[in-house]
Design a protein that fits this description.
The protein contains 19 helices and 4 strands. It is mainly α. Helix 12 (214-222) crosses helix 18. The radius of gyration is 39 Å and the shape is globular.
Length: 403
């Protein structure tokens, strides 16, 4: 009875319809899955004759699949240009030569730097020469400045474009930072150690050497905020160490003429060259520098109009005169100004000369010799030179004996 019902025609028709509906559902699911899993075919390129493109570049492009991404189109520098803060952060890590080259080559970078030129220079100085940028202020070197590329006016003079530091000023302070560091290293190699803060004082000495008249030199060293009492002590210590370096330890007679002549030049780079044995190697070079620094022509020599040791007459003795010209007044040297200012402030620096001579050689509380590593040319730190320290050099008690 049940078998007859299952084999009835109406039952067969219903079953065939349900099977067909189920097959249609399965086909639709398979078709949708095939769309998701299969990759669309790229349009076939148009046929090209062999004569149209025979370069190696075209052959390389044909070898790559059209579905692979082309990474050659991405440029990280162009991407950085879209973010100003990132490009400035990137620029402060560049060497000054690379920065100038990039500024000259890239038009977009050039425009971006021009909008914030002072900020770009300060990022370099803050990272590489912070103390030098504070001492050698760009406003004091107008020949190394330029007008603001963004044409920002002065606050007091709205019609005048302000002055900003240039790449030349940046090169100067980086150069001076390196020269001062090498001077301290050369003195350390000779066994003449100094506190680490002496580098700041040496830069202030160099700043006074840039001033060409007595009035401004005297006014600068009278400024107690710029030239502190500690700077006067450290400057005296520096002069003594230079004298010790220029004096033979056995046959020397304490002559200070070499130090006065070297500090009478217009740059401390001369002192570095002398310490490195690259200048003043013979009497001829010594006489040439002496004639340029301090030499008075006689009436007969003026009439003859001849060169003196290869130096023209208009340059003879000019470095010791105001304006560095032969018609100026006598120029006060920086070592003389330091001594005068110490006496004016009643610092009694002369009572500490022996401590300055022994600095770096003898530990003052115990009077024991101080031994430094042969490869160590840097000056010992002030923390290591406390009165209770067993090593690290003599104390800097003369810095604490202020009046």
């Amino acid at each position: 009875m049940l078998d007859d019902l299952d084999n009835s025609p109406s039952r067969k028709r219903k079953r065939s319809k349900s099977v067909e509906a189920h097959d249609d559902d399965v086909d639709s699911v398979r078709h949708s899955m095939r769309k998701l899993t299969t990759r669309p075919k790229a349009p076939s390129p148009e046929p090209m004759d062999e004569d149209e493109c025979t370069s190696p570049t075209c052959r390389m492009e044909d070898e790559h699949s059209p579905h692979e991404p082309d990474h050659r189109e991405f440029n990280i520098f162009e991407a950085l240009l879209n973010h100003a803060e990132l490009i400035f952060e990137f620029s402060k890590h560049l060497d000054v030569d690379d920065l100038v080259s990039l500024y000259s080559i890239s038009k977009d970078f050039h425009k971006l730097v021009d909008k914030r030129f002072t900020h770009t220079i300060r990022l370099q100085t803050t990272r590489k020469a912070l103390d030098s940028s504070r001492i050698f202020i760009f406003r004091c070197y107008q020949s190394l400045c330029q007008r603001d590329p963004a044409e920002r006016p002065l606050e007091r003079l709205p019609d005048t474009v302000r002055w900003v530091p240039s790449f030349r000023w940046l090169r100067m302070i980086l150069f001076r930072e390196r020269i001062v560091s090498e001077i301290i290293e050369c003195l350390g190699d000779e066994g003449h150690f100094m506190p680490r803060r002496t580098s700041l004082t040496i830069k202030k000495i160099w700043f006074i050497m840039d001033i060409g008249d007595n009035m401004h030199r005297t006014g600068t060293i009278h400024n107690r905020r710029f030239w502190t009492d500690e700077d006067l002590y450290l400057a005296t210590l520096f002069f003594i160490k230079v004298d010790l370096c220029f004096t033979h330890p056995v046959t020397g007679t304490g002559e200070v003429g070499m130090r006065k002549m070297v500090l009478g030049q217009r740059s401390l780079s001369t002192l570095l060259l002398v310490l490195k044995r690259r200048q003043l190697l013979n009497q001829s070079e010594l006489m040439c520098m002496l004639v340029k620094w301090d030499f008075h022509l006689t009436a007969r020599q003026r009439e003859e109009k001849k060169t003196l040791w290869g130096v023209p007459q208009y340059k003879a003795g000019g470095l010791s005169l105001e304006g560095w010209v032969v018609t100026g007044q006598k120029l006060k040297q920086v070592d003389e100004l330091v001594m005068r200012e110490a006496i004016k402030r009643r610092l009694r620096v002369h009572e500490n000369y022996m401590d300055m001579v022994l600095y770096g050689y003898v530990h003052v509380p115990t009077f024991e010799d101080v031994w430094h590593a042969p490869e160590s040319s840097a000056s010992p730190s002030e923390e290591d030179q406390s009165e209770n320290a067993d090593t690290g050099g003599a104390t800097i008690s003369f810095l604490r004996n202020r009046v």
